[in-house]
């Protein structure tokens, strides 16, 4: 089978329109494993510390496995939304920003309720210790996350929607048991992957660059 068709996007368009997709994930249309494999082949081209390429990828498609992971994710989503760090409790003194945060909150809640129904759940893993110092953390996660982002960009280019989520990591041991993940491997994220509904993807509002840019010194 040849390469899957990709959208006609420039590199800048791909980078600025790869958005988090939650409510628009198509829960009913299967995603061919060939498409996921192609996205992961691209992900394997990402850099890693000392060229170790220590990543491992778990692609979960079995309905029962997805349901079990979805149950954990739903419970952790509700705990997060009830907490003081919830997205809906940020920027409450800014009416415009608060409105956006509340909209995101409903989207987070929707994904929490439906994570177990998403056709493909991807969990990227890498070997590492739980008591890493700052340098160790930077090396380990810096050797995994570029590849995860490459996967998400490749998925976007093939008409798939994704979301970077981590709420399940509060109960990572339970997920590890479900999936048989070895004790010396860490889970980095949970990436729901599906075709999406609608066509509109555009750059998101962001604070001006000069608000966060430091040249030579802080």
Q: Which band does the percent of strand residues land in?
A: 5-15%
- Rg calc: 18 Å
Shape, principal axes of CA atoms: globular
Could you list the spans in which at least 5 consecutive residues all have pLDDT below 50? none
**Intertermini distance:** 52 Å
Strands, count: 5
Query: Level of helix content?
Result: 40-55%
- SSE pattern, N- to C-terminal: HHEHHEHHEHEE
Task: Give the number of helices.
Answer: 7
Reported for the largest beta sheet, the result is:
5 strands, antiparallel
Q: Look at the structure and give the mean pLDDT.
A: 93
Q: Structural class, judged by helices and strands? A: alpha+beta
Which features does this protein show?
7 helices; 40% helix; alpha+beta; 11% strand; 218 residues; 5-stranded antiparallel beta sheet; globular
């Amino acid at each position: 089978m040849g390469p899957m068709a990709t959208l006609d996007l420039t590199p800048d368009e791909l980078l600025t329109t790869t958005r988090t997709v939650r409510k628009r994930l198509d829960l009913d249309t299967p995603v061919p494993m060939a498409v996921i494999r192609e996205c992961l082949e691209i992900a394997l081209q990402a850099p890693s510390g000392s060229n170790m390429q220590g990543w491992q990828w778990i692609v979960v498609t079995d309905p029962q496995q997805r349901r079990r992971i979805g149950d954990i994710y739903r419970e952790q989503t509700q705990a997060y939304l009830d907490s003081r760090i919830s997205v809906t409790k940020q920027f409450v003194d800014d009416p415009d920003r608060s409105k956006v945060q509340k909209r995101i909150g409903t989207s987070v809640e929707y994904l929490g309720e439906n994570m177990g129904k998403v056709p493909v759940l991807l969990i990227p893993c890498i070997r590492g210790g739980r008591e890493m110092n700052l340098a160790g953390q930077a090396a380990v996660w810096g050797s995994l996350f570029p590849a995860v982002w490459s996967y998400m960009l490749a998925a976007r280019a093939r008409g798939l929607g994704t979301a970077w989520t981590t709420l399940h990591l509060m109960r990572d041991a339970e997920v590890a048991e479900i999936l048989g993940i070895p004790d010396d491997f860490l889970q980095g994220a949970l990436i729901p992957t599906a075709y999406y509904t609608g066509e509109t993807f555009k750059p998101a509002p962001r604070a001006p660059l000069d608000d966060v840019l430091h040249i030579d010194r802080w």
